[in-house]
Amino acid sequence: MYRAMRKRQIKWTVIVFILLAGILYLGKIPYDEILRTEVHTRHMQLMKTASMLRQEKLLDVVQDARRLALNSGVKSYIETPTADHRNKMQRALINTSNVYGRYDQIRYIDLQGMEQVRVDYADDGAYAVADTILQSKADSTYVTEGLALDEDQVYFSPIDLNRENGTLERPLKPVIRLVQKVTDSDGEPQGLLVLNYAAGEFLNQFRALFPDLDQPMLLNNEGYWLLNAQADKTWGWLLGQPQQTLGAERPALWKKMQTTPGQTMELDGDLFSYQRFDAVNVATNGLSSYADERKLIRGISTSAKWFMLVQTRSPQWHVGAAYLRPWFRVFVVGLFLMAAMLVYFVIASREQRRVSRAAQRGQLADFKDLYENAPIGYVTVSASGLITNVNHMLLAYLGYQREELLNDCYFMDLVDDESRAGLEGLMHSLGAGEHEQYRLEMRCKHGERLTVLCSVSSRLSTSSMLTVGRCSVQDISQQVSLERSLERLAYSDSLTGLANRRHFDELASRELKRLQREGGPLTALALDVDRFKAVNDRYGHAAGDKVLKSLARHGEKLLRGTDILARFGGEEFTVLLPGATQEQGRNKAEALRQALAEAPVTLQAGEVIHYTVSIGVATLARPEETQLPALLKRADEALYQAKRSGRNRVCVAEPEC
User: Fold this and answer.
1) What is the pLDDT of residues 226-268, one digit of tens each?
2) What pTM was computed for the model?
3) How far apart are the first and last CA of the chain?
4) In CATH, 492-652 is 3.40.50.300
5) pLDDT in tens, 608-650
6) What stretch or stretches form a coiled coil here (predicted)?
7) Where in the chain is the domain with CATH 3.30.70.270?
8) What would the DSSP string read from start to end of 426-468?
């Protein structure tokens, strides 16, 4: 009996050991999968943050180039390339370089590819290089690409190392070149602005985003490293090391990266996550609200496409595994030594519950960390709209302390009156379990207004009643500002602020439709500054610009609020007078002519410019939308008659002036 008991004891001990070993092994498989998932999730989140950083940097560079192209010092040299204006351009480039501190070089290159002005940046500030060391860049790819740019486009070069006189600069300087074509006041191309963005700053910030457990890397489209923990592997194609590629080191990984974008992979126990992105595609990965930058940025070759690659070696992603800790090993040895099935199952059950609770606490802590430290704002509200939780970013947006909002403030209280309808729609979508996005104007603590994009998600009860609502809040103030700036550029003349031809056509079409419905005549005035070329030749283009601005200013004062004044180009202006008869149009034109003749322009040097205008008048008694081109043509013909008749006069489109 004792022997049988011993046999059963041995038998069940063996069974328990086998079961225990099997359970431990099977438990390790999903546990390792959880660790892998956590690592890959961390990789993707950090790569997303890195992508946003990259997008922000590139947008900053585009905006710098736009501002510099419009700088008065640059414009003056473009219009009149004198030595004095060249000094002004140099000062403008030096100021830009000193203010931003992110450009190794800023250059102005003429249409033949020769550097005309170049500013380098050193530790003690920016300085203009001597004329003797200016170089021809006619054979450079970025010059060729820049000369091929359309209007309002810029070009980004692939990231590479800076060269001086054909030799790599030491220490190595990673650089991205942005090229902006500049034109004169007539819209004719005159040269290129080239900004050498110091990409080393971006590479260092990209590396700093990742913890020591991870190894972040950047590669170009051919698999060469732009960033690697082992510095001797980088820039292989430029340093005569063509073998230093990911394809040569890990061909299976490189092949998958070529065919399957944005995935993960495990090789030899190491975990890899990667993402491919276009170096200038600033309209993806969370910045789609920044407007259609593809209209502003020239598409570049495939060599300007990058890969983000993050590697976590096996020891690093296993470092937190419970089964590697000493206490766990002692626990396993104890279980095997006890060899008692019932005791073992009790202990195993309790241990599993304990591990489960610890995992839940860890998961809750991770979710809380993601919520609190998200790169955008988050707010949680109850069914009544009462704020029950907010994260750090939303507090930073609005300037409040957490205790000022929690359980004592409604989401509606933070929204501007004009956005309340949008918030009501947002709350309705919460109650319906829908996912919607709205733009809202939020009130900050100190009175400022913040434009945000809100997206919502909700948790409903079994009876479809709202229990908890969550709302993400993203600051889109920069996007809104950019949209408004683009709208102003699209509809107004940059010199005078008047409507441009495109905006004039839209306003005229609207007025014609109204007059067709309500009845009434429509009169057009074609206006031209007399002998304007002589003004430019004698006093300079800057003086001519002052004359045009003066004309626009006085014209707006003399016209009604319903009249439309537009600049069609050069010294040509057009006025549309809805509801005005031919006689009223003649009187208005005469009053405008006399007022401008009595409004001289005084220059800074004290010189006074007296100028006159010739005006043609044409009227439609019963206007139709299709008659607008003919009306403007008749007004132009009357204008030319006024010119031929001696200038400084008004002519009406009729057989005799």
Assistant:
1) 999 898 999 999 898 989 999 999 999 999 988 887 788 888 8
2) 0.46
3) 136
4) no
5) 999 999 999 999 988 877 788 989 999 999 999 999 999 999 9
6) none
7) 492-652
8) HHHHHHTT---EEEEEEE-TTS-EEEEEEEEEEEE-TTS-EEE
